[in-house]
Design goal:
Blueprint (H helix, E strand, L loop, with lengths): L10 H4 L15 H9 L6 H12 L5 H13 L1 E4 L7 H12 L13 E4 L4 H8 L5 E6 L9 H13 L4 E5 L2 H5 L3 H15 L3 E5 L8 H13 L4 E3 L11 H18 L4 E5 L5 H14 L10 E5 L2 H14 L12
Parallel strand pairs: 1-2, 1-8, 2-3, 3-4, 4-5, 5-6, 6-7, 7-8
Helix pairs in contact: 3-11, 4-13, 5-6, 7-9, 10-11, 11-12
Length: 330
């Protein structure tokens, strides 16, 4: 097994203070990987669900809600991943990503626009040199079932078209059948192909069955070089949930404390309301701390969330709700 080329992040760049991190040995065999994963503590499912439910009841002060909404907007990966996507739809989405509310220049841009590889060039042309990144799904999204050569071709196509970020999906069949070395190796290979592009590794947690599997898959992805770990493709019945996000956030916290390397988290699928977004922000703050409350370390993968955030933002300013059709349906 090859060693993962971990990209070391300067901790100070993210404002994260790690107390005397140790160094994990390079992963050189599948047996070594199994041993490391076996050393992880089990997840208390009842405790995780109870804590997530408790944190979901937390409220934020009205005076800070506008700031929370602005922060959430800046964390959105505005996404369209439909078979009927067209260059025109992608162009509209990119325009909205840069200027979510054209009437109000104080509304921040979103973090990224996420599309299929064949539409990356269209997104790149519209976004140009704006602060909005171009993200592309890859590696036989959403199933992850293809040869490694096909997956890497998918990645190279997206990167050559101008993608800044790659959202790859793991082969859940390989993971669930115990072929974790294959999962690790594929992430390592994709990371090598990414070069300077950021790599988000989609775990598809709704298919991983247990919280213990979510924790193990998170560690595999991070050990293999992921810059972000991501919950879901948004293409299965169960996508992001707060208990799963809590397990993943605890994993990135523990990984940072162990290795000194900081990894982000992206939640995707089923997050549609401002209330949902704020619940996740509270979860992040209470689990890994305020340093992760940044688009560089936390993202929402969503299509409909942005409009609700914009509506709630105007509610904070005007004191009354506006019509949903005041904002584009893109």
């Amino acid at each position: 097994m090859s060693t993962a080329p971990l990209r070391l992040v300067t901790i100070q760049d993210h404002g994260v203070r790690i107390p005397s991190p140790s160094t994990l040995p390079a992963i050189e065999s599948e047996a070594q990987l199994h041993g490391l994963l076996a050393s992880l503590s089990g997840v208390d499912a009842v405790g995780v669900e109870a804590r997530a439910a408790k944190l979901a009841t937390r409220s934020i002060k009205k005076s800070t809600k506008l700031a929370a909404i602005n922060l959430a907007i800046s964390m959105v990966d505005l996404t369209t991943l439909e078979g009927a996507d067209t260059p025109g739809r992608v162009a509209s989405l990119c325009t909205k990503a840069m200027h979510p509310d054209p009437r109000d220049s104080s509304v921040p841009s979103v973090a990224a626009v996420c599309v299929y590889p064949d539409l990356v060039a269209h997104a790149r042309k519209v976004l140009g040199t704006s602060s909005v990144a171009v993200a592309s799904v890859a590696t036989a999204f959403p199933s992850g079932r293809a040869s490694l050569n096909v997956k890497l071709l998918d990645v190279r196509e997206a990167l050559s078209a101008g993608a800044d970020e790659i959202d790859m999906v793991i082969d859940r069949g390989a993971f669930l059948s115990g072929r974790i070395g294959q999962v690790f190796e594929e992430i390592v290979a994709v990371k090598e192909s990414c070069g300077n592009a950021h790599l988000k590794v989609i775990l598809e947690t709704g298919e991983l069955v247990t919280y213990d599997n979510v924790r193990r898959a998170s560690w595999i992805a991070m050990l293999a070089g992921a810059d972000f770990i991501k919950t879901s493709t948004g293409k299965v019945a169960v996508s992001a949930t707060t208990p799963v996000a809590l397990v993943m956030l605890e994993a990135v916290r523990d990984f940072a404390e162990t290795t000194g390397r900081v990894v982000g988290v992206k939640v995707a699928g089923g997050i549609r309301s401002t209330k949902d977004a704020i619940r996740y922000l509270v979860l992040v703050n209470e689990t890994v701390g305020a340093a992760w409350l940044s688009p560089t370390l936390f993202r929402f993968g969503a299509s409909s969330l942005l409009n609700d955030l914009l509506m709630q933002r105007l509610k904070q300013q005007r004191g009354a709700y506006v019509r949903a059709d005041e904002f584009s349906g893109d």
